[in-house]
Amino acid sequence: MTLTVKLAQRLRLMECVMKRLAFVWGFLLTFLVFSFCLYYGSVDLSLNDVWHGLQAVWHQAPITSTPAQIIYHIRLPRVLAASQVGISLALAGATMQALLRNPLADGSTLGISSAASLGAVLTIIIGFQSKNLPWRGTVIGAILFALLGFILIFTLAYRRDRRINNLTVILLGLILSMLTSSIMSLFMAFSQEKLERIVFWTMGSLSGSSYHDVALLCFANLVFGGIAMSKRRELDAFALGEEQAYHLGIDTERTRWLLFLSASGLIGCAVAVSGNIAFVGLIVPHACRIIIGPRNQRLLPVVIFAGANFLMLVDLLARTLISPRELPIGVITSIIGALLLGYLFLQRGSSHAKS
User: Fold this and answer.
1) Phi first, then psi: what are they for 62, rounded to 5°?
2) Helix (H/G/I), strand (E/B), else coil: 71
3) Residues 100, 171: contact at Cβ < 8 Å?
4) Which of 137, 194, 228, 229 falls between 20 and 30 A from 259, CA-CA?
5) CA 1 → CA 5, 9, 12, 16, 19, distances in Å?
6) CA 344, 310, 296, 144: dihedral to nearest 10 degrees?
7) pLDDT averaged per 10 residues, the chain (length 355)
8) What is the set of domains in the chain, with CATH numbers?
9) E strands along the chain, which residues?
10) Cis bond leading into 324, ω under 30°?
């Protein structure tokens, strides 16, 4: 066995060990953040209260004490929903950015989030509820309109250019975003009695999250997120360009449709539960790329942990910063996102000036 082969085997073994260590550390960090978010809140609870509350949930015992009720009915479903929404938005953002080779691609810039928000606002205005389904009307409306937005963008892009140019997709997404935002503003102007609920929801909130919402998000992450995770090699090939990906034997058109469908499904389900939380799909992938680089084989698993931790902590800030009142989550993420984009702009400007 030559020295080169031995070296390659050793490097492969080290990479495998590093992947497993990164997974263990990511899981431990997520567990610590999850536990802290359960423990800390506007109502002071002891660690013993949290433990007994979780035991009651696990053993399905009757919940009688107030701390256990707070854990079971309020904090646990909310923290679980925050983690799953963070995973959905971060994974969708990373997928779209890799696919379009554009660091600013996200559900917000492609109009999917706005379309989902429009669907939810419509259900709020007409008061749609279905007793035969476990989810709120906003959930059904948001998911349907997110998928309709995806179909509309790609149908128009396909009619204009059979190869579906990336720039065309981004421009159509911006047009859809502006159109749906205008329609929402029009509806809000004629729905004064429901204006406060609509405005607060469109800025993002996880208050009132239920276990049905958590189940929906887990299902979406398993199905749509599983598709994105299984196509990491293809996403790395797309980073080289569509022609290079095609020459590597990848069905670029089918892969693009499939990945955009999965990203739209992730965004639709997230917006359906939490409202329109902006910039998560931009902030988390950018931060992860700075730390571990742009290769999607490594990036996407890290994005999952980072997205969950980021939104759990942001939700904790939202419900404790001005307690007992609550801030919309979208306000906090928008501030962080604006600061990050400003920093990236200044960094790029300074690097161009030096060159």
Assistant:
1) -60, 130
2) helix
3) no
4) 137
5) 7, 11, 16, 21, 26
6) -100
7) 63 67 84 90 75 72 74 89 96 92 82 89 77 63 88 84 74 89 86 76 84 92 95 89 83 88 91 88 90 88 95 93 85 86 70 55
8) 77-341 (1.10.3470.10)
9) none
10) yes
